[in-house]
Amino acid sequence: MRLRTDERGVTVQIGTVLLFGVLVILLSIYQASVVPQQNEQVEFTHNQQVQSQLQELRDDLHRTATTGSDGSASVALGTQYPVRAVFVNPASPSGTLRTTPPANLTIENATASGETGDYWNGNARNFSTRGLTYDPLYHVYQNPPTTVYDNGVLYNRFDSANRTLAGQQLVADDTISLVALNGSLSKSSSGTATVGLRPVSAATRTVTVSNETSNVSILVPTALPADEWEDLLSAEMDETGTDPDSHVLSVSPGPRSNTVRITLE
Q1: How far apart are CA 128 and CA 172, in angstroms?
Q2: Secondary structure (3-state) at 137
Q3: Considering 8, 32, 199, 234, which has the largest number of Cβ atoms within 10 A of its Cβ?
Q4: Model pLDDT for residues 188-198, shown as the tens digit of each residue
Q5: Please, are residues 192 and 76 in contact by the beta-carbon 8 Å criterion?
Q6: Mean pLDDT, to the nearest integer, of 220-246?
Q7: CA–CA separation, 220 vs 230, rounded Å?
């Protein structure tokens, strides 16, 4: 009788150890596979949110330049994983929002009559401007894009291609709209950053310009190649110069690296 009792006790202990081992294995599998999948979805959703917020920031930039009123926009640089009672999360994802180095946007061969003719006299006029980039630092979401604001264009920059989120506002019909971004910004965090916008010289009126000897052209500092700018300006292109509603003759690489020349009628 005593021998049978010992055998049953050993059987119960072995069963308990096996059940505990299975539980540990299941928990390990969940931690190694399910938790990363869920966190990857959190990171992907956050990246989509940031892209929307940067579109709002782009729109606020142009609104500030047009109206002359201060503005602000919030950008969630990072995010938080869901709280887990048993399983372990890595550190919260973060991101960096920064301005690019200043570069000149140049208008060439533009002339005007009247008082503004003293300034718009055909000489090249330079306007210092910057871009904005957002770089995320995720743990699971592989190869996320860098989101870039570049002279009114908002796009995602991947290793192999660019994807436009919001198109150009530089040329529309017979109007050139220059919005120069000045000041410097560099914020890295897993929280939310508030970007204040202040007009320095908001436009109050338009000036009519034309060309005397050579076509008016815009030399744009940009990380986008000329063929992508041509796609962005496709609705404004008129290579033959016969369309009364389109005024861009050509888009070509500029004389310096990271520049594109837009030639107008």
Answers
A1: 21
A2: strand
A3: 199
A4: 999 999 999 99
A5: yes
A6: 92
A7: 13
